[in-house]
Design a protein that fits this description.
The complex is a heterotrimer of chains A (303), B (501) and C (346).
Chain A: H1 8-33, H2 41-59, H3 62-86, H4 91-114, E1 119-121, H5 134-137, H6 143-147, H7 151-169, H8 171-181, H9 183-188, H10 193-217, E2 222-224, H11 231-241, H12 246-268, H13 273-277, H14 279-298
Antiparallel strand pairs in A: 1-2
Helix pairs in contact in A: 1-7, 1-10, 1-11, 1-12, 2-3, 2-4, 2-10, 2-11, 3-4, 3-10, 7-8, 11-12, 11-14, 12-14
Chain B: E1 4-13, E2 16-26, E3 31-35, H1 42-49, E4 57-62, E5 65-67, H2 72-78, E6 80-83, H3 95-100, E7 106-107, E8 110-111, H4 113-126, H5 142-155, E9 160-164, H6 172-187, E10 191-196, H7 199-205, E11 208-213, E12 216-222, H8 228-236, E13 254-265, E14 268-279, E15 283-287, H9 294-302, E16 309-314, E17 317-318, H10 324-330, E18 332-335, H11 350-355, E19 365-366, E20 369-370, H12 372-385, H13 402-415, E21 420-424, H14 432-447, E22 451-455, H15 459-465, E23 468-473, E24 476-482, H16 488-495
Helix pairs in contact in B: 13-14
Chain C: H1 3-14, H2 17-37, H3 42-54, H4 57-81, H5 89-106, H6 111-140, H7 144-164, H8 198-215, H9 217-227, H10 229-234, H11 239-266, H12 279-289, H13 294-318, H14 323-345
Helix pairs in contact in C: 2-3, 2-14, 3-4, 3-13, 4-8, 4-11, 4-12, 4-13, 5-6, 5-7, 5-11, 6-7, 6-11, 8-9, 12-13, 12-14, 13-14
The chains are: A mainly alpha (303), B alpha/beta (501), C mainly alpha (346).
Chain lengths: 303, 501, 346
């Protein structure tokens, strides 16, 4: 291992890798705080990724791609909103079937609309442009990673702060927290639990749509089948690790992003990619185990 | 025309007429007691007044105007507040967040926390209900939580306050404080409706009484002009019967023993060095206000909660680290307090619920295989013996009333015929006839030489059944009395943490 | 038995089927609309789909597909009955198949012994790997839903690495092991069809699971835990032991199916070949459809097998992408989940 192991590219990769997960994890955080268990993040992200490419291709501009991603994510999550928030159906059943629906639907539409299977790429398509933050971009090592990213990356960081402030300092955030914790009490005091759950789910869908946008238009411009590759599930794990507190969840996302980048780096050093691909999942599992053991030790009660 | 009137209220449920043309009239600044046994219709009536349900016939008139309440929000908007028996609080949020929820003072788009805390403090002081606005609800004892619920209603300008069985969770001393608060609220113009079945409290604090029986108004009384016997007659339609006299017994061997038991939760010792013994043929009662460690003690004895220190012996065997399975096998049965969430499976049939715990051995199973016919007979037998009102043994127990579900739980646990039975609130929500039946069954267990650990919030139940009475306060056993030496006043003193011997 | 008694009996048995039929109808409706939207003909699509599932030799294809699908459904249904979701079936499947291939290829023993040992190895490895996730839940409280899914990646990665390096058969284009000798394979059950002896094994497993679920004390405890876990614990059911037990059983069946696929139809372990048909996801869906009830799950599995076989044929004959059948499956489940909620509300 050379000293340049953790070089600028490494951190750049990490930041790029974190962003979709972070956006999805924020969607998951809001859902969790309002009392819903949203495991459809994966499917929503995939739908958003496809819609971004489709919207950009058929609409002609990057803007149509962005709008398509947001709209598709929100619409798709509408199914979850109706099934889970409105009808109080089983979160897990609906979530899993939505993920599979998304996979089938996007693969089908890939063939039907673009006439290809596997991957669609268009080098002429415009991806998300990178911005440069003057002072930060010139920092050593972390400079490019932090100072030279596309707008969505910076948006995701701001989103963490906005959500944290929203939850803890605004009236609607307070009501949301109440609904999630004790819906009976909240409803008794006049909070419209169903409306909050519905809206949170749709916003979450839009956020996941943006996450998908980052995947398909963020660096390269392509869509391949099942390109989310489980990132939505990692977001679910991040929400669990961070106990649905925005800052802790972000920490969990960073952990995943770093281990993902580490895996890629080790691959560059010659380790077989089947092993390095597993790195982030193993790290996430290890983190869950460690945190779980620590929580067990704190609470003596097993009930 | 009265200040608050409920006129000709009728409410029907499938199979039962909960309110049968009920009239209620309350004056301003009055403390009005609504009395009746479990199932008499008082909860239904109050839930109509609070907008939780709509009457099938009849209406409500408040300050001269007819009210159309479609939800509690309408009631709150009209100035009617309610404090339920089961509190509805956000555990992880602070006192002030709970109180101002959905009426938050704002500064721009943010919540004005400082102003909220000030307003809460002011409100609390004005009504004599001291509370720390910043405290987390999870850390508050039960009496303070009730204060919080009252403040929630007052913060929303309640002019009518409905209190549903408020003293169930209070020590006798806290009850006195509550009465003082109620009287001062009434003096300031607040009208209070006190829903209860406790005679002495009604005599102490109310101005007038409406007694319901079987959904109808049995009597309207003026407190100053009546007496407990008359009230009981109105509630039950009978004369008071004396509690059954128990034959004194010589207790047998020690069947269940706990020594220096410590249970910790979140850094606190909720059970702090408890030692006790249950012998065969005796009923040991634990008196204490809910929240002083009784539930945690029982869970530790049953193996549902881990023990930090001390040991638990069942029939001489050390089962401190043993599972629930092992303890049940060792001779423990347990009527759990939370019948809906813990002691039964709502969507399962009565057959399944009654078979739990018996499903591995004859007669319900043989060599690991179930015997459906035997299971059905077993269920039918228990249903008949305990007079459980259910459509058929295959029906799901979610269709049962609270009292009938309690009977299912009690029937099953008694059927184990275990040497030791732990009974936690065994007659909560059960009608008077069934209470007497269950008490009879418990006494029969005692006759058979089994030991019973009885935890109950009803001091009268403990005084009626127990041979020995322990008082629990803040996780410790602070007093022990033989039945003959116990009286309600002394017990109440210890329950409130009073004088140590 | 009187007429009324027969009628009540039938309504109770068939009643639950009606919403499923309704869901299937809605599923077909939605897929028809999607087909119209992209310019395909729904009527053509459905006739080809149904023909492709049951006409002539296609019927045997459906049955052959139903074997692994039903197996994976059972693997999902056992824990689901107790309220546990095992999303790691793919990993257990792959490891089981890989282990079976290794044993069948390299164990120094006569043919039939190798076959038997390979089947046992597949089951054992699958069970042990599932137990790892169970340990995570029991000792560290890591939800099985997450841990099982996370563990599929190292499992697939390990198999992928093994089949590329130590076990690689250099003569094949795609990373695979060597071919398994004819004597150590699961032979054809009905000559001329793709149905192999694995069919018998899965039938046996299905009968066993259904029997245990309905008639044994263990099944009683599983079912009641699924209905109310607190109640099961309070009533004396040993939950941790039960968690381990269902995960062992689930992993064993998944591993067994992997072994059957390797020994009965593919005759070698090829990277990704076991998980490509996505039997574990379809199996999970079928089990969810039936709420974990074994017989219902298997029936749902048969339905999905028919849909998938039909989908392949449909794609071959009229070039409509077969992934539409996945859409169909998902819509059916979604509809049922929502309908169930509506039912509960009324």
């Amino acid at each position: 291992m050379t000293f340049a192991f953790f070089n600028a590219t490494f951190f750049d990769q990490a930041v790029l890798g974190i962003t979709p997960i972070l956006l999805a994890a924020m969607a998951g955080t809001l859902s969790e705080r309002v009392g819903l268990f949203n495991i459809a993040l994966e499917g929503e992200m995939l739908v958003g990724a496809f819609a971004a490419i489709a919207g950009s291709h058929f609409g002609g501009t990057l803007q149509t791609g962005i709008l398509a991603a947001i709209a598709a994510g929100a619409l798709f999550s509408g199914l979850l909103a109706v099934g889970s928030a409105l009808l109080r159906g089983n979160d897990i059943v609906i979530g899993i079937s939505l993920n599979l629906l998304a996979a089938g639907l996007t693969s089908f539409l890939l063939r039907a609309l673009f006439g290809v299977s596997g991957t669609f790429s268009d080098s002429a398509m415009q991806g998300l442009p990178r911005l440069t933050l003057p002072g930060i971009a010139s920092l050593p090592l972390l400079g490019p990673a932090l100072g030279h990213q596309n707008a969505l990356v910076y948006l995701s960081w701001m989103l963490v702060v906005v959500i944290a402030v929203f939850l803890n300092r605004t009236p609607w955030g307070l009501r949301l927290r109440g609904i999630g914790e004790q819906p009976g009490a909240a409803v008794a005091l006049g909070a419209d639990a169903t409306r909050y759950r519905f809206i949170v789910t749709l916003i979450g869908g839009a956020l996941c749509g943006l996450a998908g946008l980052q995947l398909s238009l963020g660096s390269l411009t392509l869509f391949s089948e099942n390109m989310t590759a489980g990132r939505g599930w990692i977001a679910v794990a991040a929400v669990m690790l961070g106990r649905a507190r925005p800052l802790y969840v972000t920490g969990a996302c960073v952990l995943f992003g770093l281990s993902d980048a580490l895996g890629l780096r080790l691959q560059g050093e010659g380790l077989p990619n089947q092993i390095t691909d597993s790195a982030p999942y193993v790290v996430t599992l290890a983190a869950l185990v460690i945190v779980g053991l620590r929580r067990r030790r704190l609470n003596a009660a097993t009930a | 025309m009265a200040y608050l009137e409920m006129i000709d209220i009728v409410k029907r449920y499938p199979g039962v007429l909960a309110n049968d043309h009920v009239d209620l009239a309350v004056e301003r600044g009055e403390i009005h007691a609504v009395m009746g046994e479990n199932g008499a219709g008082k909860s239904t009536l109050m839930s109509i007044l609070y907008g939780l349900q709509s009457p099938d016939e009849g209406y409500i008139r408040f300050k001269g105007t007819t009210l159309l309440l479609q939800s509690p929000l309408d009631a709150i908007a009209q100035g009617i507040g309610m404090v339920h028996q089961a509190f509805n609080l956000f555990e992880s949020l602070s006192v002030w967040e709970n109180i101002v929820y959905r009426r938050e003072p704002r500064r721009g788009i943010f919540v004005d926390g400082a102003r909220a805390r000030r307003e809460v403090e002011e409100l609390a002081r004005r009504h004599g209900l001291p509370i720390d606005p910043q405290a987390r609800v999870a850390s508050l004892p039960v009496g303070v939580r009730q204060r919080l619920e009252i403040l929630k209603a007052l913060y929303r300008d309640a002019q009518v306050l409905i209190l549903d069985e408020p003293t169930a969770v209070l020590t006798p001393a806290e009850v006195t404080t509550l009465f003082t608060v109620m009287k001062s609220l009434a003096a300031a113009g607040c009208t209070i409706l006190l829903v209860t079945h406790k005679l002495n409290e009604v005599m102490a604090v109310s101005d007038r009484i409406t007694v319901l029986r079987n959904g109808r108004v049995a009597e309207r009384l003026v407190t100053a002009a009546t007496n407990p016997a008359q009230i009981v007659r109105a509630m039950t339609g009978q004369q008071i019967t004396l509690p059954s006299a128990k034959r004194p017994r010589e207790p047998g061997a020690v069947l269940l023993e706990a020594h220096a038991l410590v249970v910790e939760q979140q850094g606190r010792r909720v059970v702090d060095g408890v030692s006790l013994q249950i012998r065969g043929g005796e009923i040991v009662g634990i008196a204490g206000v809910a929240g002083n460690g009784q539930s945690e003690l029982i869970e530790a004895l049953m193996g549902l909660t881990a023990v930090a220190q001390g040991f638990v012996r069942v029939a001489g065997r050390d089962l401190t680290r043993g599972s629930v399975t092992e303890r049940r096998a060792g001779g423990l049965s347990y009527i759990a307090e939370d019948r809906a969430r813990t002691a039964s499976a709502a969507t399962a049939s009565a057959i399944d619920n009654l078979a739990m715990g018996f499903h591995r051995a004859p007669p319900l199973a043989r060599r690991g295989l179930l015997r459906p016919a035997a299971m059905r007979d077993w269920a039918r037998g228990l249903i008949d013996r305990f007079d459980i009102k259910i459509a058929s043994p295959e029906t799901a127990v979610s269709t049962l009333s609270g009292g009938n579900l309690q009977k299912i739980v009690t029937a099953r646990e008694l059927a184990h015929n275990s040497p030791v039975l732990i009974a936690e609130q065994p007659t909560r929500g059960v009608d008077v006839g069934a209470i007497a039946f269950i008490h009879g069954e418990l006494l029969k267990e005692r006759e058979r030489g089994h030991g019973i650990l009885l935890v109950s919030a009803e001091l009268s139940e403990i005084l009626e059944l127990a041979d020995r009475i322990l008082v629990m306060y803040e996780g410790r056993i602070v007093a022990e009395f033989a039945r003959a030496a116990a009286d309600e006043r002394t017990l109440g003193l210890y329950m409130a943490g009073g004088s140590r011997a | 038995m009187t007429v009324t008694a027969i009628r009540t009996h039938l309504t109770r048995r068939l009643g639950p089927l009606l919403p499923i039929l309704g869901a299937v109808a809605v599923g077909f409706g939605v897929c028809g609309l999607i087909a119209l939207w992209v310019g395909l003909r729904p009527s053509l699509m459905f006739t080809e789909l149904i023909k492709g599932a049951v006409e002539g030799p296609q019927f045997f294809e459906t049955v052959a597909r139903a074997v692994p699908l039903a197996g994976m459904t059972l693997a999902a249904a056992i824990p689901l009955r107790a309220g546990i979701v095992n999303l790691g079936a793919d990993g257990q499947l792959a490891l089981g198949g890989c282990a079976a291939a290794v044993v069948a290829l390299y164990l120094p023993a006569p043919d039939l012994v190798r076959l038997g040992a390979a089947l046992v190895a597949g089951m054992t490895i699958g069970a042990l790997y599932a137990a790892v996730a169970a340990a995570g839940e029991i000792f560290a409280g890591v939800p099985l839903l997450l841990s099982t899914w996370l563990l599929t990646y190292p499992a697939k990665g390990l198999c992928g690495y093994l089949v590329r390096t130590p076990l690689r058969d250099p003569t094949t284009a795609w990373p695979s092991t060597a071919r398994i000798a004819v004597g150590a394979r699961l032979g054809a059950l009905i000559p001329g069809t793709p149905i192999n002896q694995g069919f018998l094994i899965v039938v046996l497993v299905a009968v066993a699971v259904i029997f245990i679920d309905r008639r044994s004390s263990i099944g009683f405890e599983l079912r009641l835990r699924g209905l109310n876990e607190r109640f099961a614990r309070y009533g004396g059911v040993a939950l941790d032991r039960q968690t381990l037990g269902v995960m062992l059983a689930s992993g064993a069946i998944a591993g067994l199916i992997g072994a059957i696929m390797v020994l009965g139809s593919q005759f070698r372990y090829t990277d990704g070949a076991l998980t490509a048909p996505q039997y574990s996801w379809s199996g999970t869906l079928a089990a969810l459809l039936a709420g974990g009830e074994p017989l219902g799950s298997v029936i749902a599995a048969l339905l999905f097998a028919a849909l998938q076989t039909g989908g392949f044929a449909m794609e071959r004959s009229v070039e409509i992408p077969r992934v539409l059948t996945m859409v169909l499956q998902s819509v059916i489940i979604l509809f049922l989940a929502m309908r169930g909620a509506i039912w509960r509300r009324s």
